[in-house]
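Tutorial, part two.
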Amino acid sequence: MLSYRKKSFQSCLMSGAAIILGVGVGSAPSFAQSSSSVGSSADAQQNDELVVTGTLIKNAAVASATPVQVTGSEEIRLRQSNTAEDLLKTLPGVVPSLGSSFNIGNPGFSFVDLRGLGSNRNVVLLDGQRIAPADLLGRVDLNNIPLALVARVENLTGGASTTYGADAVSGVVNFITRRDFTGVELNMSDQITSRGDGNYFRADATFGGNFAEDRGNMVLSFGYQKAKPVSQGARSFSRIAIDSFDNSPAGSSYAFPAVFDLIGQTGGRIQLRPQTGTVNNGIYAPFNFNPDNIFQLPFERYNIYSSGHYEIADGIEIYGRGIYSKNKSTTIIAASGVTGANVAIPLSNPYLPSAVRNLFCADSGFSASVCNAAASATNPADPNYRTVTESLRYRSVDLGPRIDRYETQVFDIRAGVRGALTSHIDFDVSGSYGESSNDHSQQGYMSLSRTRDALLATNTSSCLSGNTGCVPINVFGDRGSINENMAGYVSVPALSVVRSSLAQAQGQISGDVGIASPLAERPVDFAVGGSYRKYHASQSADAFKSLVGDLGLDSALTPFEGGYNVVEGFAEVIAPLVTDRPAFRNLTLETGVRYSRYSVDAPSSPKFNTTTYKAGLNWTVVDGIKLRGMYQHSVRAPNINELFSPPVSGFGNLSVDPCAGSAPVGNAALTAVCIAQGAPASRIGSIGQPASGEVNIVNSGNLALKPETANSFTLGVVLEPRNMIPGLSVTIDYFNIKITDAITALSTLDAISGCFGGVTAASASSPACLAIGRNPSTGTLDGDAATTRGLALPLTNSGRVLTDGIDLGVNYRRDVGPGLLALSFAGTWTNRAVFKASAAAVSRECAGYYSANCGTPAAPDRGALQPKYVWNQRTSYTVGPATLSLLWRHIGAMSYEPLAQLSTGPAYVGGGVDYGHIKAYNYFDLSARIEISTNYELTLSVQNLADKQPPFVGYDIGATGFNAGNTFPSTYDTLGRRFAASLRIKY
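Running the prediction step on this input gives:
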């Protein structure tokens, strides 16, 4: 059942055959099922070896009952996408996840999120096989996909665990490469915005040829990409951070100049104004962090891909594939600093202004005479020597922005043998191993421990600690007050490394049983086999990165490692039940089952078993009318991070603290809760709101986690009225996915609501209330992570997730005048996207809504937007060698989440702006392609033709990272109009 395309031998490549074979040899599939497609996919069926996404059965006559969206190479070239993430994120059914526009906390990765269920709930495949993951969650970095060799991309949404194993709860994305490539192909492309920035260059070179009298084929491809950054300060709409709830210039209370929360007798908040020498009481100038942040990450990538196959005997073929990729990425974030941590300052500190000293003295209860004597007492042995302890909020602008550099390397090698056991049965045995590493270096971060050391000084040249290299620091001055020597001591480099690996083996036999249904002609097809996968991952860090709360405005990293393995057995059957009968042109049953046994690499950790299954029908009523339906019971096992991660301090979004301001005054029950959580009694009535709308949180894994389960079904119809409307095809499919025992953590709002849902009902002894830890000095939920726990958000199996909706695909092709007109439409209506974090939490509807707790709330990358309506429509007209094409991308209207308004109040509306609603957005991309000759093809395009600016909603209405630059850069275009040109050379 193997098929081979005979092609002429490329003698010029034979000298490199040994090198290519050393890198890896492999295979690629062909298209064999009815699907909706994006754009033109006329070239999506030109491959030989068969992979049908959604089933393990390899038979050109079968079609899976699960709908699959296909994006062909023609569409890929028209879009001039540089990465797989850039291609996928605008497709219906895909919710933008981490990518090149996500700046804060992005380790240089790009992921795909199907149906908004999270980038950890789908599987990314290359030619139907898993490849090495990039992180602790087992996700595949799309930057490592060799896009130059991709023939098509197939998206299956709605569950695929029976076919591909755990994680495929929301489906799979299968990148299918070109097989039997011969010749030489060079691709070069360059992009730039209409403002002259954001340059993105890409080049690929591919070589391939047959050998051994066409019994084998090898291909080798090299790729290079480089992108330049675009800062938020380079766009008018993002230069100044705007508060989403009052429309005022806003930013962070981790400010410049320094802000002090007084924690002694007087309390309150002060900020020194160096320009005037005065002190502001109770107010401060927020720090505008926008200009230093970026919309497009600087990125550089080198990759090598090699594959090949060789027929060692009639019907027996060896094959293999090798991937190597090296990616360098940089995030640039506004200056570091001190995040509300207590610091001790001598009253004789040489940089302490007298006005601030007097306020410190009053707050500490020192008389004027004691204060004056302490001002000149420089020796701690002097009885007049005094120190004060206050809470410092400070941006270290003289240190420059925080720069995080990530270098990721990944390799993955696969080899196998396949062939025919009999005339009806084939076998396929393969194994692969892959590793990835992500080296993370940081600069510009202000060390809290060293800052405390440098503040404890009574002269300008040495610190009281006597620590070597310590230089006293001036945090009280204006820009330029921290000189190079000061910065050299408090600004520390930090290093961390994440490594992950995947070893896997699989064997299966497939074919037909030689027996057919009494009412059908074609025999029953089957696939049966087993597989083994072993995941291992670790993270390590240096002393500064490991110290909780030490690196200003950064999360600490606790080293750990872990792993698990799974042994599986599976079987699938596609059985034609009825063919060529009235009203039953074809009726086919598709079933499958997979049993999995997991073993976690931990002492006394329980093992767990899972069983997944599917059943579906394909019913062709008459030619041109087909009905299809599929039910799947899927699972997702907890990944290494979810199992092994120790408690990790970080930041979460929360705008309103129930204990802040005057709320607890006169309310004995609420006051008792606030104090039980660690707030000093003296701060009741003066607790501040969360700085920058962010609070401390603690996330943690859980070795007691069990697999989550999902039940999904799809129902659809495929119409191809060839006689009535030749060239037209229409697919309509309803999807419904329900996840129970979902591995989730509470959102910050859910954690707060669990305690303060009804303020009068809040109890100082409630577990939900006692799980919250406040700043012991100020009573706030932010501050030094070493002393302020904030909200505890551990992972549990308490979540519930539900989404459903309808996919619509339309394709139409016909000759018009001298050329060919091609129309395509692919759209998704998401009816519901419901998340419930626990039995006690609210049921949160997020389809069409945005907030800090909505978007994709059950995902590790919480915060992406999920509009109710998303669709793409492409119109192409081809005359001879030239094609003109227009892509219309539609993003439906959205609103601020009603549940979030209960805590934050409504978003700002007035003066012609409305931050609580985003109107529907339409983008147009124009492309022109011409085959200059047989060997040369030129493509020119203009993306965002109308130069449409993104919606303006302020900086703090959504989750940090996804809500940046006063908009949502992962969903909407922040760069503006872009021009692209690419040249393809083939020999």
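Residues 1-35, 38-48 have pLDDT under 50 and may be disordered. In part three we will examine how such features are distributed along the chain.
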